[in-house]
Amino acid sequence: MLHRIDPYRLRLETDSRRVVPATVFLPPTLIAEDSAIRQLSDVATLDPDSIVLATPDIHCGYGVPIGSVFASPHYVSPAAVGYDINCGMRLFTTPLRARDVDVARLADAIRREIPLGEGKSNLSVSAGAVERVLQEGVPALLSLVDGEASLRKGYERSDLERDLLHIESGGALPGRHAAVPSRAIDRGRDQLGTLGGGNHFIELQRVDHVADPGIAAAWGLFEGQLVVMIHSGSRGLGHEVGGVFMREAAELCRRERLPMPNQELAYMPAGSEQGKRYIDAMHAAANYAFANRQLMAQLARRSIRQLFGAGLELPTVYDVAHNITKQERHQRKDLWVHRKGATRAFPGKLLAGTPFEATGQPVLIPGSMGTSSYLLVGVETGFESLYSVNHGAGRRMSRTAASGVGRRGKTVMAAAISDLEFRQSMQGVYLLCEDRRSIKEEAPAAYKDIDQVVETVAGAGLARIVARMKPLAVLKG
Known about the structure:
single chain; alpha+beta; eight-stranded mixed β-sheet; 21 strands; about 30% helix
């Protein structure tokens, strides 16, 4: 079904089902699950005017593989975005050298400010404040802080004003709070400033290697530096939005007799009433996720400044979304570009009037805990992937396979990763986690080799490596 084009690309050609081909950016040394390729094949049956591709971290997801791009002028699909709307990344720098920092002490301090794991609350706000965030995104915090005392812990005006220039779309998409289900708004009232579980994390990292000194210097990075990376999404609010509209899309497909290639892959005409409401609600949930990362970054900055000096400059390099669809113009067409487990990687020519016009967009690709993360830059040759790259290493085994299954004190399925192997893989990394029973689900061995994944991105000309970071401390749910 797949055939290799070159060392970095595979191709799914059209056939009696697939109305468009699909490109898979994957070297011979990395493997894609058959189930993930079947899901990608399903996506290629939806729209003869669409573009379909997969990034090197491709693995099986809900209806649509994680690590894929679906760009259509006609349709939007909640499954091609996923439940965790705007699960995304932020990187900010410090002026500190990692060797001079007690990272365990700092990680402990950050943990006291930011709850880890599912179902946690932190900066509780009114329903009206949530609606403002949904409508306006991160800029809403500039005025909300006057009436919402809880937000003041996560607020510093000078940081926020500067950060807005370093967040994708300025941290504000054209969302509409009225399109968001009331239950989602209720779930979002007390979850601002919380990390969540799964693969979300906060890492204290050391800049281990600089590959492009010019761009690294322009972005404020140097070898040996302590930097902070945050990976989080829209929490329970986004999950509720995703679930409601996945059900609505499935009902619309049945009613309008739109063919569903698998029972999870529902979609809607972008111009339909349901499609417009989904876009409004999904963008609003993305705004909530941007604001959540902004508040967590500020809480982490608060901890750093309490330990190392109130006047420290801690600028954001970039904050970028995963799991989102936005309308973009590519190949002379206006397309709804769905990036699921994928991230934008724009060259400078698409960023006129921003701080990145001269360099291109910073691209953040984290590894699994215990392995390297990378900072890259978007390049013009990335047009082939619609200026998209992977959002991480990508799983190579399921969560249950990694951690095993137990029932009533007995082992039902042995873990593929032993406790000893896990401990060895995390040597030298200070780990804080909320649930030690499930932490092996996120073990480095459960993921693909991040170095090979990033080598594929660079080798295929989708982005260029700027720097590599090594984890020193990891905070997980």
